[in-house]
Amino acid sequence: MNDEQQLKNLYNEMWQALISKDISTLEKIHADEFILVHMTGMQQPKKEYLRCVREGELNYFSSTAENIFVDVNAGKLIGQSKVEAAVFGGRKNTWRLQLAFDVEKRGDSWVLIRGKASTY
Questions:
Q1: Residue from 92, 41, 98 nearest 66 by CA
Q2: What is the pLDDT of residue 96?
Q3: CB distance 79 to 90 below 8 Å
């Protein structure tokens, strides 16, 4: 499987793990130095982000990918998905969520280094 397909699979694997709250998989695919920048501008390091997923502050119910863009040479992965979620005490809603990631290949696997959330 080529790097582009590996990155597309990584994006889909991330969503499956978020929906099922599979923290073990999320630990593996996010680098230790991972930072998520939310739409509000809030920055969450990996440990805090995964705690919020585990404890239900970030709840994801479904995700339907509409577009996945990959630039292997630049280490960029951008996914656009319709996501059903309830976050930080808000009610369940469907978002057109774009996540733009910096990615890095470590050994044979790609990991997410930084993510920035926005709408599209």
A1: 98
A2: 98
A3: no
pLDDT digits (tens, 9 = 90+) for 73-103: 999 999 999 999 999 989 999 999 999 999 9
| pLDDT at residue number 1 | 83
Over residues 16-45, the mean pLDDT reads 97
The enclosing domain of 88 has a CATH number of 3.10.450.50
Count of structural domains, the chain: 1
Task: Classify burial at 66, counting beta carbons within 10 Å of its beta carbon; exposed 0-12, middle 13-18, buried 19 or more.
Answer: exposed
**Torsion angle, CA of 44/30/68/107, rounded to 10 degrees?**
150
Question: What is the residue whose two structure tokens read 């739409």?
Answer: 39
Q: Where are the beta strands (DSSP E) in 15-108?
A: 30-37, 43-45, 58-71, 76-87, 93-106
**Host domain of residue 8:** 3-119
Q: What is the mean pLDDT of residues 29-53?
A: 97
